[in-house]
UniProtKB/TrEMBL annotation:
Swiss-Prot/TrEMBL keywords: Cell inner membrane, Cell membrane, Membrane, Transmembrane, Transmembrane helix, Transport
The keyword Hydrolase is assigned to this record: no
Free-text function comment from the UniProt entry: Part of the tripartite ATP-independent periplasmic (TRAP) transport system.
Transmembrane stretches, start-end: 12-41, 61-82, 103-136, 148-175, 187-208, 234-252, 273-294, 333-353, 365-388, 433-454, 474-497, 509-534, 554-575
Bilayer topology: Multi-pass membrane protein
PANTHER family: SIALIC ACID TRAP TRANSPORTER PERMEASE PROTEIN SIAT-RELATED, SLL1103 PROTEIN
A single GO cellular-component term on record: plasma membrane
Annotated protein name in UniProt: C4-dicarboxylate ABC transporter
TRAP C4-dicarboxylate transport system permease DctM subunit domain segment(s): 11-207, 334-570
Location of the protein in the cell: Cell inner membrane
Source organism per UniProt: Microvirga ossetica
GO molecular function, one term: transmembrane transporter activity
Length: 582
């Protein structure tokens, strides 16, 4: 048997042994040591002098000193603290009230919470289990189809591993030698686009067949408005913005109203008036940040780059200095920005025209449940994408913020803190051992000639870049049925990486396609971990086959998303190219 044949034997054995249930990390190390001993065997040397032992030490040290992996325990700790802190119940309730008039309102709220909570925690199992406990039974009691309810939770729960900050992206960056920051920027839009496709599918299915998602009863869609707000509307105006603004300057009638625990105070009116301005403030802040980053920031940077009157040593004199207008955005930006601002103004005007007590109460619920977590998530992503901190430093910010949020909500005690730290250590140890085993396995595979054989086989097929892209993604899609994403990225992705340069394929684009493709690994039986997570917390009458059936349409949506990403590469590459250059 030739050495390359031994390499392919290693590859087949690893799949078989993992499917038999053996631990992946130690299987990789065991096969690597066994076949590596054969590859380095020299009858003239003692067995203990075999170089495979040196290789094992070198690969272990290399994995332990990989700076990219330092951010993994911090992001995992952030996720476990949020999961143990139980911060999701109020969020689900407020989002459900916000979308109560949409078809399949509970399913839509579940998908939005899964996406948002997945971004914050990045833990697929935790998100699926939490939403299974919080949303699955309410959807079944409301008469929702079992396949719709299970599919929404299992598919939505996997989005956290795709949308940054994601452990999967960090693992790929370490394997492929790519920038974590650039991969985060590239995965941003595809992740939200896939979530949008899920929403379109759920709402469309409910509109076509309303029986699968009956309208909610009145008691579940009624907004809990305090009694003082009703009296306040009668005394001032049905429009809470107008009424609260008037009460600030004419508080006489307000003093005769009863509030929470006594007479209505000026401070209560002022706080509620500020709450009415939250949508306006968020919109204005978003538009200002876009304007600052695109228009003001580049001009300020250009003005401070080089002092006036200096010339490059040994070079020709500069004929004309670069003015801020030369580096400003194109005219298209101003047109698009103006249209967006005008559209936002129209939407806000329509919103505030109907600002009644129910809308104000929903805004307050959303602000108290989503805004703290949203600010933390945006802060963690912003400091990474804008180059303020490294991925590791932003992970530390996220972990510290998660502790603050949990303490502020008074849901994190000493017992839950210990559990979060223990689970973080357990997950981090698993990832580190996976990297050690993968590094040893891939080194022995290359030494035996397996990597060269695969490359010669692919190049001999004379594929076009499109054909290679389809072939590589199809192989990963098929591997997602029996294997998890960790095995695929650590074992099989390195086999394709050296071929990307030959076909002139951007490893960032290919990597994000792999991330989206691996969503199918969580949704494809027989090793669809999302289904088993949900089955563990579902009622006894819900079968595993029903959960599998509910997940299948989302696999097709994943494929559609990948096709659109390939046809429109700007969906993936525009943001990293804009932020960091091509």
């Amino acid at each position: 048997m030739s050495d390359p044949a031994l390499g392919l034997t290693m590859l087949m054995l690893i799949v078989v042994v993992i499917m038999m249930g053996f631990p992946t990390a130690f299987t990789l190390m065991g096969l690597g040591m066994f076949f590596g001993f054969y590859a380095f065997y020299n009858p003239a040397e003692s067995w203990f002098d075999n170089r495979v032992f040196d290789l094992m030490v070198q690969r272990t040290y290399g994995a332990m000193t990989n700076d990219v992996l330092i951010s993994i325990p911090l992001f995992v700790l952030m996720g476990y603290v949020m999961e143990r802190g139980a911060l999701v119940d109020k969020m689900f309730y407020s989002i459900q009230l916000s979308f109560r008039r949409l078809p399949a309102a509970l399913a839509v709220a579940t998908l939005i919470v899964c996406t948002f909570w997945g971004i914050a925690s990045g833990l697929v199992g935790a998100v699926v289990v939490l939403m299974g406990v919080i949303a699955f039974n309410p959807m079944l009691r409301a008469g929702y189809d079992v396949k719709l309810a299970s599919g929404v939770i299992t598919a939505g729960g996997t989005l956290g591993i795709l949308i940054p900050p994601s452990v999967m992206i960090i693992v790929y960056a370490a394997v492929a030698g790519q920038s974590v920051v650039k991969l985060y920027a590239a995965a941003m839009f595809p992740g939200f686009f896939l979530a949008f496709l899920y929403l379109v599918y759920v709402i469309g299915w409910a509109m076509i067949n309303p029986k699968i998602a009956p309208p909610l009863p009145e008691e579940q869609t009624r907004v809990p408005v305090p009694e003082w707000m009703r009296k306040f509307q009668a005394a001032y105006s049905n429009n809470m913005l107008v009424g609260l603004f008037s009460a600030l300057f004419s508080p006489a009638r307000m003093k005769n109203l009863d509030g929470d625990g006594g007479h209505l105070t000026y401070w209560t009116v002022f706080k509620n008036f500020l709450a009415t301005l939250i949508p306006l403030a968020l919109t204005a802040l978003t538009l200002w940040l876009v304007w600052w980053y695109v228009v003001i920031h580049p001009q300020a940077s250009a003005e401070g780059e080089a002092p006036e009157g200096l010339e490059q040593l040994g070079g020709p004199a500069v004929s004309a200095p670069v003015t801020p207008t030369d580096i400003g955005p194109a005219t298209t930006f101003y047109v698009v920005f103006g249209i967006a601002a005008a559209l936002a103004l129209v939407i806000l005007a329509r919103y505030y025209r109907n600002m009644n007590a129910e809308r104000l109460q929903v805004v307050k619920l959303l602000s108290s449940s989503i805004m703290p977590l949203g600010i933390l998530t945006l802060l963690v992503l912003a400091v990474i994408l804008f180059g303020i901190t490294t991925a590791t430093e932003s992970a530390a910010v996220g972990a510290a913020g998660a502790f603050l949020l949990a303490f502020q909500a008074r849901t994190l005690n000493w017992k839950r803190t210990k559990e979060a730290v223990f689970l973080t250590a357990k997950t981090t140890a698993m990832v580190c051992w996976l990297f050690v085993g993968s590094a040893l396995f891939s080194a022995v595979f290359a030494i035996l000639g397996g990597q060269g054989l695969v490359e010669r086989w692919v190049l001999a097929m004379d594929l076009t870049p499109v054909q290679f892209m389809i072939l590589s993604q199809a192989v990963i899609f098929i591997l997602g049925w029996p294997l998890e994403w960790t095995e695929i990225i650590i074992i099989f992705v390195p086999i394709f990486l050296p071929l990307l340069k030959h076909f002139n394929i951007d490893p960032v684009l290919w990597g994000v396609l792999v991330f989206v493709n691996l969503q199918a690994a969580f949704l494809s039986p027989p090793v669809a971990m999302s289904a088993f997570y949900l089955k563990g917390v579902s009622p006894p009458h819900v079968t595993l086959n029903q959960i599998f059936a509910g997940m299948m349409p989302y696999m097709l949506i994943v494929i559609i998303c990948m096709i659109l990403m390939y046809l429109w590469p700007g969906l993936t590459l525009w943001l990293p190219n804009y932020l960091y250059g091509s």
